[in-house]
Design goal:
Blueprint: H1 2-15, H2 25-44, H3 50-68, H4 72-94, H5 112-131
Helix pairs in contact: 1-4, 1-5, 2-3, 2-5, 3-5, 4-5
Protein name: Insulin-induced gene protein
GO molecular function: lipid binding
Family: Belongs to the INSIG family.
């Protein structure tokens, strides 16, 4: 998490695109609250099937990015973080270190990348605010 938080301001400086959208602590705290809500919804809200849950969480995660970030670097890093974290989770499950009660997509849950994407955006906002 700390590496992700540090990676966002470094990428902003490296690309020469300073992040100027909603740069205050109240926005960061709202982003954290929305992430907690998305995470809670993934565990507690019953959906008809996993595809419906995955699509809903994907829309909420993109909405989180649009509401609190809107940068190309933030979107790219969020996608990259979601891919790498899902890959690591998949390797852990495949090697028997961890297991899901009902995996639905290549040993892991299909909604997991959405949670990792939203978490990456949230940690990036915290890191950007701390870098100021």
């Amino acid at each position: 998490t700390a590496v992700i938080g540090l990676l966002y301001p470094c990428m902003d400086r490296h690309l020469g695109e300073p992040h100027k959208f909603k740069r205050e602590w109240s926005s960061v705290m709202r982003c954290v609250a929305v992430f907690v809500g998305i995470n809670h919804a993934s565990a507690k809200v019953d959906f008809a099937n996993n595809i419906q849950l995955s699509l809903t969480l994907a829309a909420l995660s993109i909405g989180l990015w649009w509401t609190f970030d809107r940068s190309r670097s933030g979107f790219g890093l969020g996608i990259g973080i979601a891919f790498l974290a899902t890959l690591v989770s998949q390797l852990l499950v495949y090697n028997g270190v961890y297991q899901y009660t009902s995996p639905d997509f290549l040993y892991v849950r299909s909604w997991l990348p959405c949670i990792f994407f939203a978490g990456g955006i949230t940690m990036g906002n915290i890191g950007r605010q701390l870098a100021m």
